[in-house]
Amino acid sequence: MKKILLTIGVTVVVVAAAVGGAAYYFGNANRPAAPIVAAAPDYKNISYLIDGKEVKLENGAAETTVDGATTATKYFGNVVRGDFDGNGSTDIAFILTQDNGGSGTFFYAVVALKTENGYVGTNAVLLGDRIAPQSTDFSNGVITVNYADRASGEPMTAAPSVGVSLRLKVAGGELVKITP
């Protein structure tokens, strides 16, 4: 009888651990990656999250190779400064480009948040492929990235000709789109 109760007890513990582990894993699998926490004195020499992957810039550039494919990430510019997270310090928003070796060049907005230990990079927000950046502004807590894109249905070979203004804000250390 003791052996049966012991077997039942062990089985209950194992099943509870498996259910708890699965709930934790699947509950966290779709959450966005947390912002990078390593700080540095120069915003061109810190890490940013692009498509959920950490990209560490050195002098405004990074090169990574995965399965023989090289991705080049570069500082583009369009800098705007302001207190994006409300902590009283001046943060920096700007654009990065990423070239995966194909015909496209992908443009991303990022923010370097100023902390007492230096700058910390946020996640990147995709602006588009082969766009034409115009300006980046900051007012009333909102970062606005202005650029030209192609009209819906136009081929990628067409020159960008449609004005777009993407509004962003920093919330909880993450860069997020503001929906109209």
Question: Could you explain the architecture of this structure?
Answer:
- The chain has 180 residues and is an alpha+beta fold.
- The chain has two domains: 31 residues; 144 residues, no CATH class.
- It is built from one helix and twelve strands.
- The strands form three sheets. Strands 3, 4, 5, 6, 7 and 8 form a six-stranded antiparallel sheet that branches. A four-stranded antiparallel sheet has the order 9-10-11-12, with no helix packed on it. It has a two-stranded antiparallel sheet with strand order 1-2.
- A hairpin with a 6-residue loop joins strand 5 and strand 6.
- About 16% of the residues have low confidence.
What structural class do the secondary elements suggest? alpha+beta
The overall strand count is 12
What's the helical proportion of residues?
10-25%
Shape: globular
Calculate the mean pLDDT score and round it.
84
DSSP summary: helix tally:
1
Largest sheet: 6 strands, antiparallel
- The proportion of strand residues reads over 45%
| Total domains | 2
Low-confidence stretches at least 5 residues in length (pLDDT < 50)?
Answer: 8-35
From the structure above, extract its key features.
about 180 residues, alpha+beta, 2 domains, 6-stranded antiparallel sheet, 4-stranded antiparallel sheet, 1 helix
Quick structural gist:
This protein is α+β, with helices and mostly antiparallel strands and 180 residues long. The chain has 1 helix and 12 strands, in the order αββββββββββββ.
Task: Present the secondary structure layout.
Elements: H1 2-28, E1 47-50, E2 53-56, E3 61-66, E4 69-82, E5 91-99, E6 106-115, E7 118-121, E8 125-129, E9 132-139, E10 142-149, E11 162-171, E12 174-177
Antiparallel strand pairs: 1-2, 3-4, 4-5, 5-6, 6-7, 6-8, 9-10, 10-11, 11-12
